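Lab notes, practical 5.
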Amino acid sequence: MRNFTPHTHVVSFVATLCALAALASGCRAAVAGPKGAGGSFTVVVLPDTQYYAKKYPEILDAQVSWITAQRERANIVLVAHEGDIVDEDEPIQWQRAAASLHRLDGLVPVLLTAGNHDYRRSGTHIDRRTSLDSYFWQQAPGAAVVGEGTYEPGRLENSFVRLSIEGETWLMLSLEFGPRDAVLAWAGDLLARNADQPAIVLTHAYLDADATRFDHVSRPDQLWNPHRYFAGDHPGAVNDGEEIWRKLIARHANVQFVLCGHALDDGIGRLVSRRADGSTVHEILANFQTGALGGGGYLRIMRFSPERRTVAVETYSPYLDQFKRDPENQFELMYDNPHGKDRR
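Output from the prediction step:
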């Protein structure tokens, strides 16, 4: 297991003086967010944007413009990108994605993970080389993309940030596509160290479109299992959704949500899983890339009400100015108290 290497950064110009002091001293500190009405706050989830980077950069621009315009009213504390930022690991697509997402610098923190399309392809398989960090590794205080701590220095696809929101600290953790055993061990150590903090885990591939976890052992019929993408797949080199559940999520009661993209068909699905201790976790898939215009700009809006322990989820396209109102795209969830009370 590799020790985690903290890289403290100020991820917003509204970060507190305490966070600035922590940056200077090298101490880790949660980033403070703005106050929201009634204690509520919002996480915006960006599903696979690969076709926007390839063909429709104006759609990602529209998403970012909406986030910028709504950030104070909705108290947007984080933008979580589910991976497949680009369709191919080539400069023009990274340049387009970076031009849009860097508009959030100094405004809203962005947590990135890498999808299979963000890696370089060798024949029919991918490897773990990516240009992601060349375009998004934070160079100065105020840059939006965050990496308070990373598994590997200078690589963002396994990173975390802790956000101080309405008097409570949330741990936001991203994991690479088909994470390695060593990455899951690093993440488990991080979750254990922060066991009193509610956590959201972000990774590209976890649920299939039938709302079951990817499982290469019992479900060889699943077309997009991460094990299919890597040459020389050996034990511990790749983990699918079921393995991530068993090795990580099932062991840490503070994980309230797992967010993912990747799967095709209708690209939506939800699963509620219960751990041995009675705690629950909501696993949520969103990927609209098979729709018109590469997804039409639909994103997920997660509005948290900490006092009620609820999150209201909406699916909206700033580009089309349209909501998806069906029950699979608009719903409310109740989540656990990470301190062990009010198990639901």
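Observations recorded by the TA: The two ends are 33 Å apart (CA to CA). Confidence is low (pLDDT under 50) at residues 1-29, 31-37.
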